[in-house]
Structure formats: structure tokens, C-alpha cells
Amino acid sequence: MSHITEAEYKNIFHSSPNPYVLFTPDLIVADINEAHLQLTDTRREDVIGKYLFDAFPTPQQEIADLLQSSFDRVKKFKVEDTIHLLRYPIRYSNKDGKGWKDRYWIVKNKPILNQDGCVVFILNNPTEVTHLISSGDIDPSWINNSDFMRNANIVREISKVENEHRKMRALMEQAPGFVSILRGPDFVFELANKAYYQLIGHRDILGKPVREALPEIEGQGYFELLEQVYRTGEPYIGRAKRIHMQQEPDSDLAELYLDFIYQPIFEDDGSVSGIFVQGHDVTDAHNLSRKLSYQASHDSLTGLFNRREFELRVENAIKEMLVIPNVLSLLFLDLDHFKNINDVCGHRAGDEFLRMISMVLSSRLRATDTLARLGGDEFGLLLKGCPEHVAMNIAQDLRQAVSEVEFVWQNRRFSGSVSIGVFSFNDISITITDALSVADAACFLAKEKGRNRVQVNRKEDDELINRRQEIDWIRDLTEALKGNTIELYCQKIQALEHPAKYPNRYEILIRLKNNDGDMIPPMAFIPAAERYGLMPAIDRYVIEKTFLHIATTFKDHTSLLSISVNLSGASLNDDTFPEFIRNIINVTGIDPTQICFEITETTAVANLAKTSNIIRDLRKLGFRFALDDFGSGMSSFEYLKHLPIDYLKSTAHLSVKFNLISLMQPLSMPLSVLQTLCISKR
Ligand SMILES: Nc1nc2c(ncn2[C@@H]2O[C@H](COP(=O)(O)OP(=O)(O)OP(=O)(O)O)[C@@H](O)[C@H]2O)c(=O)[nH]1
């Protein structure tokens, strides 16, 4: 058999009575024969090298889409595709003018494959059928039954389906989330919407396997997940999963967080043929929630953990000991004389110093240690798997490091100093509150012993036990002050002589209730309140409550009553106290002559000048003053000369009559009973 030369092939192509156009896969006109040029009334030079729709324009996009989809099928499935009826108008231009001539066609598109099976050309062969449609002399029943019309109906159905398909694609395109379809075991990109392209930085991915299209994803576990879904047919849902990918060509990898689903695509026989990928970029929401949780767990000034997070971590560490026996060490650090920096240079300097100390402490710790700022100038440190002797060494190291800090602010120099309490334990029954208060108490002792030192907790250390008890009282008292649950009682003051002259005298006392409902007398908690500076708050609480009670309950019987209220030394040293009293009188409108403030001898003597001034100030308003427990201390009559007091109250064994001497009655009663008592005695 003789071979046909290329020239002979060309000759056959050009002289064929059937119209042909040869397109490249990009739909560029590679060649066109005479029959086609005549049929479409076109000149060769106007179409060669041009894109299909530039060479053969059409007035309507839908028509172009139909033709385009036929070419797409040819490229995809590599088999001939026929459009059984296509309305494709042809442009004309003659002496009558320009316009479009309606033409109808049957169009066949055939792939020309190379040796590797790739599409190198598409041979387009249109057959014009306009005359069949427009002649009008065709028997209608023949039209309905003819193959031609059946084909036409099929075409209509196909275009309906294709229309639906187009709408679906448009919806997918506009979907706010990203969508793509991966086909076959190599996960070749068959489709991707706008959001997907945006996510991957508009890379050219269609027709490429995912490993080739997105190489930077390798090693992040995503390809393995695709394979798993493909193999098992089970969908996979990822929530805020981290991925590193390029969002711009040649850019650095960006850290993103995605919510997504890999949904298997099933064929009719139940096999998986691809994966439908759908999801959202949730990076912003994720980062925001990370930021919020950072803020909730960190101290904004120093960047260290805050008290809440610290307590949570200590609590978890105690729970972990249930599973793995361990020794935990808690360090409680309190800067020495920090207030000094604030007072001398202002809070900004104080803040800067706190930041500096935080850095010094952090730099000496392991990543697994938990350092937190608990508040003010207090820090907590949790060391896991750390026995006491190691914790002591660490504490000494930190103390030393802080003592070497030199802080300069506006030419003023300050050196650092810290007191540290250490508590090591392996007892899983301990509560977090106890553990922290033991370390706190040890730190307190370190302060008391002279500061700039480390104090380890020893169970047998009485001082520490007392401190812990005190800290518990302070916690209870602070709660009670906040919750208004300190209870006020009154106790009658009995004049030894002329009792009728002083009928209704009462002293206000405070009581605290413990968790079991038992009343706790003041001598149990007042020392702790004095030591921890809670007395001014307690005094004000009692004064407010008592004055309000008198104002509301004894409005019409005020002259019947005289009430004694104890005042602590701290209030007498507080320059704002007289102002507080003036305000409360204005608010309640009570008569100051009904009130007698009781102060102790030791308080008065501690700061005689200041105390005398405040007493004078308040007496001018009408208040009276009594010196309590006279005789229990130095009992020097000398200083009494300088104190402008009205009464002396003495212990029973020392009967000194000054103006009025009283004895406590053993029974006391709640303040609320007072009204009934007084009124009935009237
Ligand atoms: N600059 C600054 N000061 C704070 C902050 N929080 C609390 N303070 C102050 O820190 C001081 C802590 O005082 P203390 O610990 O009682 O006093 P100190 O001078 O360190 O005395 P000792 O602990 O007894 O040695 C108080 O004056 C608070 O007002 C803060 O965030 N910034």
C-alpha cells in the first residue's frame, strides 16, 4: 500500500465538499477548507490564527456556550461529540447593509490524538440544515417522528440540563466558601471556584494532580486524609485545622486555619471516583479567639500568666499527681518595698520595674515552669517534678538575680529585692487554696524575718501555721465585707452609779459566722485584720451599718440612745477618716452626740499627737470618745491629760472612776433587737 503524503492530505482536506475547520486545543483556527469558507462566506486570512469566537462571532452568549461545551467534552473524553441541532447565526455584510442570518447546523467535533493519546487538534465539521427548518413544506408528523426531530428534542433536553449545570456552577462560583472537585486516585483538579483560587493564590491547577498543584502541602497530612476518604468512602470533617500554604506565587508560607469537609463522590456502582472539597477560611476568627484566650490567661502589663491561669495550672498539676506521683513546688514571690518606687517616681516607673523584674525571672526558668503575676508586686511560680531542695536553690537563684537588678528612672537608682516563700508537696489531697496560702504564709514570714530572703514552709513551724490561719481569716473577712455578711451585735453598757441617768447605752460588736454557722468572736480575727491592714475597712463597715440603722430605726427616739463604736488605730491614722465621718452624717442625718467612739489605750499612745487632733476634730461635730481597756497597758495618767476624751472604760479589777465606768455584761444581742429593747424601756 502506498503512503499518502502530507501534501495529498492537505489536498483532500481543502477539496472536500464537506466543510471542515481544524482547531488547536485552545480553539485557535489552525486550518479551514474551501467548502467551509464558502458556506460561511468567510475569507481565509480573516480567520486563520484566530480564536473560534473571534473568527466566527455569535450574537448570543448561550450559543457560544453550547459550542464551547462540545469542545470541552471532546478535550475531556477524547471522543467525537455531536451537537444535533445548533442555531448559529452567520454575520453578513453586503450592499443592503450588515446583520445576522439565522442558520441551523448539525455540528460534529472530532479529536485528533497524537501517539501519547493527547488531543493535538479538533476537527470541526458543521452540516447546514437551515433549509430543513425554514422550508415549511415538511409534513409536521414527519418532523415529530423523524430522527431529526428526536435529535432536536434531545438537544433541547441536553441544553436544559446544561443550563441547570451552568446555574449550579455559577452558584458554586459565587459561594462564599471554597469549593473544588478532585478526580481519580491522583486527585486531579476538575473544578475550583473563585474562593478556592483566592485561597491558593490564583494558581493554574485545573487538570493537575493535587500533589503537583499544591506541592507545599506535602508533609502536612492533607494528602493522607484525601487518600483515607478515597479508600474508605467516609467523609472527613476538619475544624480550624492549621495549614501552611502559599497565598501568592513565590510568597512565604502563610499560616491559615480552615474548616472543611472532604466528601467522597460515588459512582453508580458504589465506587469512589473523586472528592468534593468544601470549606471556609476561619483564620481571622481563630486568631481572634486565640487573642481573647491569651488576654484571658495573661497579665497585660508583664505578658506573664495571670492569677486565674496560674491557679488553673496548679489545680491541673495537683490532679495529674493522681495519675503520676510527683513533687510540686510552689514559690510565692513578693517584691520588697516596691511601693517606694511608685511613691518616688510614679506608677509608670513602677510598671516599668515590674516588667523588668518579670523578664529577669522568666529568663532564669525552664519553658515548662509556670511563672505568673498574681497581682500588684506578687508573683507565683509552679515547678513540676521539683523537690524542696531543688526549689530552694531555684528560689535562691531568683532572689539573687532580683537583688542584682539596678533600676534607673530619671537619674534615680533603685535596686531590686524580693522575699520568697517555698512550699513543696506530693500530697494529692491538698486543695489549691491551701497550697497557695501555705506558700503565701512562708513568703510573709520571709518578709517578717527581714526581707530579701527565702523561707521554706515547714509543717511544724508554728509561726507558719499562725500565718496560714491569719491568711484564711483575711480571705473570709474580705469575702464578708464584700458580701455584707459581717454581723453586728450590741451589748449593754451598765453604769455602776446612777444607772437611771444613763439608760440606753450600748456598744456595737462584730461577729463573723464560719461555714458551719458558728459565731466567731473578734479576738480570733482582729489580729489578722490589723496585721493585713483590713481594720479601716472594717471600721467604716461598722460605722455605715450602725449609723444607717440608727437613722432608719430610731428616727423618733434618738434621745433615748447612746451607741459606742470601736475605732482602730489605723482609722485614727487615716487622714481621710474625718471626711468620711462628715459624709456619713450628711447622708444619714444622725445626731453625733448619740455616738461614742471607743479607742484603745495602746492605739492612743502610739500616735498621741495625731490621735488627739482627730479626736478634737470629731468632738467638735458632737461625737464623744472613750478610752477602752484602760488599765490593761501602761495606765499612765500622765498622757490622759493630753487626750481630749469623755470617758474611761476599765477592766473590772481596776476601779477607776473618771466620768463613767462601765462593765461589760456577758450577754450580747443582735443589733436588730436593740430597737425593741430601747423602746420598751422608755
Ligand atoms: N506601678 C504599679 N504599682 C502597682 C500595681 N499594682 C499594685 N501596685 C502597687 O504595688 C504596691 C504593693 O505594695 P506592697 O506590696 O503592699 O508594699 P511594698 O512596698 O512592696 O512592701 P513590702 O511588700 O512589705 O516589702 C502598692 O503600692 C500598689 O499600689 C501596678 O500594676 N503597677
UniProtKB/TrEMBL annotation:
SUPFAM superfamilies: EAL domain-like (SSF141868), Nucleotide cyclase (SSF55073), PYP-like sensor domain (PAS domain) (SSF55785)
Source organism: Nitrosomonas nitrosa
GO molecular function, one term: catalytic activity
Lineage: Bacteria, Pseudomonadati, Pseudomonadota, Betaproteobacteria, Nitrosomonadales
Ranges of residues in domain GGDEF: 326-459
SMART domains per record: EAL, GGDEF, PAS
EAL domain ranges (all copies): 470-682
GO terms under biological process: regulation of DNA-templated transcription
Name this protein carries in UniProt: Diguanylate cyclase (GGDEF) domain-containing protein
